[in-house]
Amino acid sequence: MAHFSCLLCHLMFWMLFVGIHADSWSDATSLLSDIRGIYKKTGKDLTTVVPKEKSDTPVNVSMTMFIYSINGFDAVSGQMEIAVSLSLVWYDYNLYSDITPTTDSDTISFDEVWTPNLVLLNDVHSAERIGSTTYNLIYYRDNGMVEWKPRIILKGSCSPNMTYFPFDRQECSFVFSAWEHDTSQVELVTPISSWDTSMYEENGVWKITETKSEIYVGSSGQFDSYYARFSIAIERQPLFILVNLVLPILLLALLNGFCFLVPVSNGRVSYCITCFLTFVFLLQTVEQFLPRTSYPMSILTIYVVLMMLFSAFANIITVFTVRLHLAPSKDKVPKWLQVFLKTIKCRICKEYKEKKKQIEVNGKVSFVGQNKVGISIGHLNEPKLEDVKEVDWPEVARSLDIFFFVLFLGVQAVFSVFFLIPLGTRA
């Protein structure tokens, strides 16, 4: 009994399935025969004749963009790839005038009736028309409306602006044209001013900030045609770049100034050269994300180049400071260098005050040639530079190390703030 019930269920399911498909097949066959009947009756090839209602009225083609995903944005080559589908709706009066209207909707093959010859003008591969026989059309017999939703992969050219990389925002446009159709034949319209993102899958690198759809009329050289521009604005999610690229650059800029504190015997020159080569490597890494254009240049690129120049300058100074450390201590230090060192260390002021305290007696200042009653007959016995103790070369080298350490850290901090604040405000 159980086997009989199971067999009966399978039989009923098979009959229902075959019946439904038989109806659909018969509808499709009926519509196809109607289309071929029109061709035999009028001699018109429905795939080439624009289905206008009146001779002076163009076919109104409605375009709506549905986006599914952002496959990638290549700033180096200036290309953007997205997965979308175009919802195209128009009224085919060639069919509506010759086919008996009903409440049914039928599926039509792409190569049986007229479809708008849409071409993506800024396609990086070719200028082939949109759509193929893979996606059929839906024809509504009651009003003659045709709906077509071809799914396509758009890969269009886009001019990147990497000034604020990695906080950059890009805007790309995909321009479609009704190829070989002037304004009297086909009119493109966009029922909504944005894209449909209800089926969009989030991207780990880019975030959509704005979408726009607009129609304009342009000249193709021989006649005026309608153009549809679909624009999309995206913003980079910068966390990956910040952690893996920007943070190492900032840390290396900090470490670059510490080369003057490394002992000479422990490879100070090697440390400085390593910092310089690391900046070169990071600069090449940054350039992998950027296009080979001179304008506009990335602020981050300019910053890395400046830090690399600072590192090269630090290498030059390091060579001279190492020579000072190795100079014989018995050699005399030039007067101008002694004055410079004591100026930056404020030793002249300190020694002057100490000398002045030593010549004070009982609250009175002693003068050269002072008589018994305390009347000055000379001048103040001021300390002279010749009286100041001279410095030796090891002390000169140590003082210059501290001076250049503070100088480099200060200058690098100023440049870091000057270049990175615009990036921070952009975030």
Which key features would you list for this structure?
single chain; 427 residues; alpha+beta; Acetylcholine Binding Protein, Chain: A; Methane Monooxygenase Hydroxylase, Chain G, domain 1; 3 domains; seven-stranded mixed beta sheet; four-stranded antiparallel beta sheet; 39% helix
Helical segment count: 8
| CATH architectural label of the largest domain | Distorted Sandwich
Tell me, rounded to a whole number, the average pLDDT.
Answer: 79
Under CATH, the homologous superfamily of the largest domain reads Neurotransmitter-gated ion-channel ligand-binding domain
Which ranges are low-confidence, i.e. pLDDT below 50, for 5 or more consecutive residues? 7-28, 365-370, 376-388
What share of the residues does DSSP label as strand, in percent?
15-25%
Tally of separate domains? 3
**Largest β sheet strand count, sense and barrel closure:** 7 strands, mixed
CATH topology of the largest domain: Acetylcholine Binding Protein, Chain: A
How many angstroms does the end-to-end distance come to?
73 Å
How many β-strands, per DSSP?
13
General form = rod-shaped
| H and E string | HEEHEEEEEEEEEHHHHHEEH
| Helix share bin | 25-40%
- Supply Rg: 41 Å
CATH top level label of the largest domain? Mainly Beta
Structural class: alpha+beta
Query: What is the multimeric organization of the chains shown?
Result: single chain
Domain Neurotransmitter-gated ion-channel transmembrane: 246-358
GO molecular function, one term: transmembrane signaling receptor activity
Domain Neurotransmitter-gated ion-channel ligand-binding: 48-238
Signal peptide: 1-22
